[in-house]
């Protein structure tokens, strides 16, 4: 029997909240799936739509953008910009036919290790039935 | 060899050519393109001209040269990838597009033989369709040493005589294609030859666009090299690649390594079309760009076709298909530019 | 009906009084019936000016060249450039003003109303006339066009041959322009977002198949980008090198430069280009439709940008180019922007 499909998630986590939240999940020894590749960014507001496209292009099965809760941004308002931009990005990706489950945004604070772990768990479960993401994946050869 | 083929018999002829991959113009939305056809019945030769020229088949926009991969990041395995071995026949080639291929033959077959181009070229037979009238108001083949029934670059030329085609083989490859089942073709008679002759002289007269002093163009353009003329004519140019990408004879390209996965390393080396109309075409790694403005770029496009190429190969690098005029988003018209160049005093 | 003579008179006066450096307008093209962009510098050249249903070009595109030139020139030019704008073009100017790319004093806007009609779609016209060559197209009475062919003049209703963008137009005249030629008409037949609705209602799988087929046609000539007023970036994500490379750039810096999209016109790279451009159009695309008209392979690009335009409208109550003083869509926010997609 073939190995069950394990999706790869590319996660853009802001340095101040979500990345710290994922650290907390780690140091608290909370179990969660190992499918995620975390990339720390300075702020969710610094995540360009191109990062997301590039992640899908490099074969990510799902992409997560996570930042501080509204009002908590280290740069005061970066996550508000992110919220607007990602709303547009999500609409666009779904419009061209990418499965809506493949792109997610969340707010995870530095204290929410448990929330982060559960979030990844749920994301992985949602991605599994979809199988590998091939629509936007780069295939040049 | 001259033969007659009734229009109803065209599918039968194509069926006979089952050893070949058959390409023909196929309708796609508002335009036409060359595509492989599976059913002989679907070949219709009732079309103006394709949006992308014949070069899109013989000199494709993307050509993979080689594939490279490495398991450990040190030892590199490289595999050359030449085009496949399929022999093909392309139907419905307009004489302007075929002539452009003969010009490309000069480029890719000069001091340096381009194996990728020639493998495809040698495996392909071109069956042309003469234009009994200009297919667009922008046509000007007979203004640049061409003709609507030119056989240059073709293996066979077909002429539409209403209910039948007049077939004329130009090369040995063409004769082979006509050497099939006896009752498919009839011998061409005097009457047919006269009909063709009349059509041709009639067609010539229907082309209205002219280029005065064509043979002096290299000199005229040389004298204009430093002139304001180019700034005036290129004012509305938006530097897109339409004129050159749709051109049947433009052949500039770029070569890049494209990586699919970094670890383990896997990728390809590809050739893609490139164009002198893009600002980064001549960008040096120093940051200096010798052709940095639109005037220099228009000058390059026109001069390459009407000065440099004739100086090097004794032929104009333009076959008058009119695509660059028809599709230019801002109405830049190479015939008008050349006409103005002749009269320009400044 | 637009009074072309009055328009010419106004243009001539502007040039005579040296109130503008030059005038961006339309003139008759060289071959056939189409108009082309005109750069008019002398009062006597004003006679070239024309206005007909083939004046599709969004001339604000040339303001980018002008701004670049002004920025790089040492001499300060005080006079503005004169420019003819339709309703959609005027919204493009508003976006440029919003983004502070253009200064109000650098442009003298002459508005033209499309009145009951709009711009003709050449492909629809060819279909309607079964490819008969067209010698002239004029505005007729109301929403009708008068087309001259070898067989004489025929009248065709606007709905049949109008460009899709005009059929979905939201404002047929440049609201807010100081001078407007023609009547401010509210048209009855326009249906904003009609095309978008047709695609939106398809199942996801079919939407993917649709866009995949469209983008696979792309030959990356970048005409959509080149013809677009909004694409004024000095360096585009799809150009391997551009202005960022200077004499001081080291080889290492060059090698490290990210290549977001390869040159190969394959599915993944074409998607990267078009989706990136789409995101850059969010809140900026004024639906002048020039990209779609310029595209040599008929990719329905308007349908892509319309999605984001409508999303901006629905979610953030934002319409591109409607207000030159409003902050741009993606560099602003409100505390209560929708966030229910965030989990």
Describe the structure in your own words.
- The complex is a heterotrimer of chains A (141), B (346) and C (343).
- Chain A has helices at residues 18-27, 49-57, 78-95, 113-127, and strands spanning 9-14, 36-41, 62-67, 103-107.
- Chain A is an alpha/beta fold and 141 residues long.
- With 346 residues, chain B is α+β, with helices and mostly antiparallel strands.
- In chain B, the strands form two sheets. Chain B has an eight-stranded mixed β-sheet with strand order 3-2-6-7-8-9-1-10. A four-stranded antiparallel β-sheet of chain B has the order 5-4-12-11, with no helix packed on it.
- The radius of gyration of chain B is 22 Å and the shape is flat.
- Chain C is an alpha/beta fold and 343 residues long.
- In chain C, strands 2-1-3-4-8 form a five-stranded mixed β-sheet, sandwiched between helices.
- Chain C is globular.
- The mean pLDDT of chain C is 92.
- Chains in contact: A-B, A-C, B-C.
- Chains B and C meet through helix 9, strand 11 and strand 12 of B and strand 2, helix 9 and helix 12 of C.
Q: Which term fits the overall shape of chain A?
A: globular
Largest sheet of chain A: 4 strands, parallel
Strand content of chain C: 5-15%
- Indicate the percent of residues in helices of chain C: 25-40%
Query: Largest interface: which pair?
Result: B-C, 45 and 45 residues
Oligomeric grouping of the chains: heterotrimer
Radius of gyration computed on alpha carbons of chain A: 15 Å
Total beta strands of chain C: 8
**Order of the strands making up the biggest sheet of chain A:** 2-1-3-4
Q: Structural class, from secondary structure content of chain A?
A: alpha/beta
**Biggest beta sheet summary of chain C:** 5 strands, mixed
Strand order of the largest sheet of chain C: 2-1-3-4-8
Q: What is the CA–CA distance across the termini of chain A?
A: 28 Å
Count of helical stretches of chain A: 4
Shape annotation of chain C: globular
């Amino acid at each position: 029997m073939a190995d069950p499909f394990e999706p790869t998630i590319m996660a853009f986590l802001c340095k101040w909240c979500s990345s710290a939240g994922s650290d907390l999940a780690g140091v608290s020894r909370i179990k969660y799936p190992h499918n995620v590749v975390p990339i720390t960014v300075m702020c969710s507001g610094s995540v360009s739509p191109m990062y997301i496209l590039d992640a899908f292009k490099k074969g990510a099965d799902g992409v997560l953008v996570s930042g501080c809760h509204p009002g908590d941004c280290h740069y005061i308002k970066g996550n508000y910009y992110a919220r607007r931009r990602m709303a547009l990005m999500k609409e666009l990706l779904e419009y061209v036919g990418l499965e809506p489950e493949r792109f997610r945004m969340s707010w995870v604070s530095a204290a929410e290790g448990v929330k982060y772990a559960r979030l990844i768990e749920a994301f992985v479960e949602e991605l599994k039935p979809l199988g590998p993401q091939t629509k936007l994946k780069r295939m040049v050869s | 060899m001259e033969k007659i083929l009734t229009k109803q018999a065209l599918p039968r002829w194509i069926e006979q050519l089952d050893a070949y991959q058959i390409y023909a113009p196929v309708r796609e939305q508002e335009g036409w393109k060359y595509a492989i056809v599976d059913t002989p019945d679907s070949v219709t030769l009732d079309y103006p001209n394709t949006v992308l020229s014949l070069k899109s088949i013989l000199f494709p926009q993307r050509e993979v040269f080689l594939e490279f991969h490495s398991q450990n990041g040190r030892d590199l395995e490289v595999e050359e990838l030449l085009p496949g071995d399929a022999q093909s026949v392309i139907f419905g080639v307009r004489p302007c597009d075929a002539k452009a291929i003969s010009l490309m033959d000069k480029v890719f077959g000069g001091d340096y033989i381009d194996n990728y181009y020639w493998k495809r070229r040698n495996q392909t037979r071109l069956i042309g369709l003469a234009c009994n009238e200009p297919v667009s108001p922008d046509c000007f083949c007979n203004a640049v040493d061409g003709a609507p029934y030119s056989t240059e670059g073709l293996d066979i030329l077909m002429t539409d005589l209403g209910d039948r085609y007049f077939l004329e083989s130009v090369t040995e490859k063409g004769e082979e294609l006509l050497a099939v089942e006896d009752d498919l073709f009839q011998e061409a008679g005097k009457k047919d030859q006269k009909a063709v002759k009349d059509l041709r002289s009639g067609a010539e007269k229907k082309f209205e666009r002219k280029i005065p002093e064509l043979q002096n163009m290299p000199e005229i353009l040389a004298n204009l090299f430093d002139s304001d003329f180019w700034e005036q004519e290129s004012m509305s140019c938006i530097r897109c690649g339409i004129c050159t990408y749709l051109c049947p004879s433009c052949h500039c390209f770029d070569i890049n390594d494209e990586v699919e996965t970094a670890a383990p390393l896997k990728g390809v080396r590809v050739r893609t079309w490139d164009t002198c109309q893009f600002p980064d075409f001549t960008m040096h790694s120093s940051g200096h760009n010798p052709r940095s403005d639109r005037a220099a770029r228009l000058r390059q496009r026109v001069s390459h076709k009407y000065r440099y190429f004739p100086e090097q190969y004794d032929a104009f690098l333009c076959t008058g298909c009119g695509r660059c005029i028809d599709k230019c988003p801002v109405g830049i018209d190479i015939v008008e530019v050349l006409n103005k160049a002749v009269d320009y005093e400044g | 009906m637009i009074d072309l003579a009055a328009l010419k008179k106004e243009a001539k006066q502007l040039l005579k009084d040296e109130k503008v450096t030059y005038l961006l307008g339309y003139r008759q093209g060289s071959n056939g019936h189409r108009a082309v962009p005109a750069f008019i510098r002398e009062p006597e050249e004003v006679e070239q000016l024309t206005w007909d249903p083939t004046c599709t070009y969004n001339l604000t595109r040339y303001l980018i060249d002008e701004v670049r030139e002004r920025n790089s020139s040492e001499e300060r030019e005080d006079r503005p450039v004169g420019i003819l704008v339709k309703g959609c073009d005027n919204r493009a100017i508003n976006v440029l003003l919003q983004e502070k790319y253009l200064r109000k004093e650098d442009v003298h806007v002459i508005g033209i109303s499309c009145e009951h009609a709009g711009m003709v779609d050449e492909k629809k016209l060819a279909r309607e006339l079964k490819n008969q060559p067209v010698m002239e197209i004029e505005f007729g009475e109301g929403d009708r066009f008068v087309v001259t062919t070898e067989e004489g003049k025929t009248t065709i209703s606007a709905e049949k041959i109008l460009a899709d963008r005009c059929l979905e137009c939201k404002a047929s005249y440049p609201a807010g322009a100081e001078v407007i030629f023609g009547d401010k008409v509210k048209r009855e037949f326009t249906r904003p977002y009609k095309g978008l609705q047709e695609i939106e209602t398809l199942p996801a799988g079919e939407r993917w198949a649709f866009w995949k087929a469209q983008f696979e046609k792309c030959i990356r000539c970048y005409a959509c980008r080149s013809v677009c007023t909004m694409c004024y970036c000095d360096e585009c994500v799809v150009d391997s090198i551009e202005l960022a490379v200077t004499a001081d750039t080291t080889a290492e810096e060059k090698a490290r430069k990210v290549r977001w999209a390869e040159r190969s016109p394959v599915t993944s790279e074409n998607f990267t280009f078009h989706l990136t451009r789409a995101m850059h159009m969010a809140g900026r695309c004024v639906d002048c439709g020039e990209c779609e008209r310029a595209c040599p392979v008929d990719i329905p690009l308007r349908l892509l940008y319309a999605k984001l335009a409508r999303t901006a409208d629905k979610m953030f109550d934002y319409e591109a180019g409607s207000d030159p003083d409003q902050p741009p869509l993606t560099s602003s926010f409100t505390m209560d922007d929708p966030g229910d997609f965030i989990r």
